[in-house]
């Protein structure tokens, strides 16, 4: 079973490919799918889609875990991120992968034990878990590692679902944190 963790972004989309067939699980590859920030969004979406398609062709991804879009102070940014999220979802379903979106707070909670953890704490934790040295690693890549790790924990620990529900209730997040491709 191979999990693809994605942190959707309009310029850089973080990705992490983890094989969980083995114990302990192993990191196959991670990094960022980069686009040119000066190009129109449509061209960046095409570039992200093509790079994702290559990943799905090279690996048999059973589960794709994505960070949900967070609606912050800028609705335009959220709208653009939503398009990238939709593209990632489309590519996953087209490749026959199940799709599991997770809220950022839930990811932090499941990975570090605190839904309020900062990026540095999440980064330190996931790099230690995967035994990766911090050499010019982009946050988007470590965010994708956190998304993948969150999903792995979800798969391995049924008690995590009740923890997630309490975190989501406190944060006012919809309890339906997953959806699956219709079989």
Care to describe what's here?
- The protein contains 6 helices and 5 strands.
- By secondary structure, it is α/β, with parallel strands linked by helices.
- A 5-stranded mixed beta sheet has the order 3-2-1-4-5.
How is the CATH topology named? Nucleotidyltransferase, domain 5
Number of helices: 6
Shape: globular
> How would a crystallographer describe the biggest sheet?
5 strands, mixed
- Helix proportion range: 40-55%
Count of separate structural domains: 1
Describe the protein's topology:
Elements: E1 2-7, E2 12-19, E3 26-34, H1 41-58, E4 63-67, H2 75-94, E5 98-102, H3 104-112, H4 119-129, H5 139-156, H6 160-171
Parallel strand pairs: 1-4, 4-5
Antiparallel strand pairs: 1-2, 2-3
Helix pairs in contact: 1-2, 3-5, 3-6, 4-5
Features:
Nucleotidyltransferase, domain 5; 6 helices; 18% strand
Quick structural overview:
The chain is of the alpha/beta class and 183 residues long.
